[in-house]
Amino acid sequence: MSPEDKRTMGLRERKKAKAMAAVQMHALRLFRELGYNATTVEQIAEAAEISPSTFFRYFPAKEDVLLRDNYDPVLVAAFEAQPSSLSPLQAVRRAFVSAIADMSADELAIVRERDQLIVSVPELRAAALNNLTQTMQLIAELVAKRVGRKPDDAAVRTFAGAVIGVNISVMLYYAEHPDADFAELLDEALSKLEAGLPL
Amino acid sequence: MSPEDKRTMGLRERKKAKAMAAVQMHALRLFRELGYNATTVEQIAEAAEISPSTFFRYFPAKEDVLLRDNYDPVLVAAFEAQPSSLSPLQAVRRAFVSAIADMSADELAIVRERDQLIVSVPELRAAALNNLTQTMQLIAELVAKRVGRKPDDAAVRTFAGAVIGVNISVMLYYAEHPDADFAELLDEALSKLEAGLPL
DNA sequence: TTAAAATTTGACAGTAACTATCAAAATAAA
DNA sequence: TTTATTTTGATAGTTACTGTCAAATTTTAA
Fold this sequence. Notes:
The structure is a homodimer.
Chain A: H1 7-34, H2 41-47, H3 52-58, H4 64-67, H5 71-80, H6 88-101, H7 105-120, H8 122-147, H9 154-176, H10 182-194
Chain B binds a DNA duplex through helix 1 and helix 3.
């Protein structure tokens, strides 16, 4: 099987991906019905008709069944699609907003539900924040490339930190005001950062 | 015992605080010697000569034995000691720096060791980030009071988010460059935020 | 189509972080 | 000292997670 991404392999992986998505669906439903902590991995596995062993083969920890997503490539694409005439902060801002705008209503509903769960369950919140750390690194790399610096440049790191911090503050607020428009909240917050955090 | 903080009660609580500090000491030592995950709560309890039950009575989770600290009041005091002529961001910046400057060399050494452990162990990192969320709320409250707005004001929240985000980026960097001066790193990072995140 | 090889799965056993409970021990109040 | 209150530790149980291995499945080769 030297040709790395053979059609067969693609099939195999696609099947796996489908199974994982099913597990995630069942998990989200159970979390909604019973609460996160009251739902055991065993129950999720049973609902998805897999063994607990397989669950942990798919997801290294219980939290991951809720937290795993594929937004990174979306963000990267959205960022790199921004015209180079924009400042880095403007580019990040528009990338976020356009990435959200590209989501369907169904996706957005799931994002909202996930966000509420994440913020309200300490373990999930902690793990999600940990993930944001990687997103921070990602932003640092994207911005570094754009402005021709190294990702560990102090200014670049600080930039990425501030952006992620603003994201966190929006996430926390949104969880308690789910009727607000997430994209709008984020857009406004980043515009304030752009304006030098006026008070 | 109507007079709430009787001397006797103070004694009792002081004793407890001392016991807890001893547990933390032993835990840190064991983490250093064996690694965080390889150290069991049972071992910590044994070293500190308490029962595992008591450990969990002191610290709700294993992580807390490393993460619990009392820097909040220090930060509050440092912030409120800043002259009102300073901008909120300047005040926060100086508050952080002066709070760090007030620490002894021993304290700083522990901070460094803790920081390295926290950043390198995912569970600790996640829990620490979760704690920073509370610090974010604290900053929002302090700043809100200072500028006469509500803590959930959008500008205030965004401000606090950016500040915490910058803190996180510094923490992550410092863990991998422990020879750097933490206060200086933070001071520079916050100055960049003040300058509008130049790139 | 069938046989061999590689991968995935599930069953089983085990560890360690917690939780709940309750009687014994230490401490405070009377 | 005696009584009341709080703190502790022992015990038992739950659940997230890990490692191992044979059975089942799937892929490749014949």
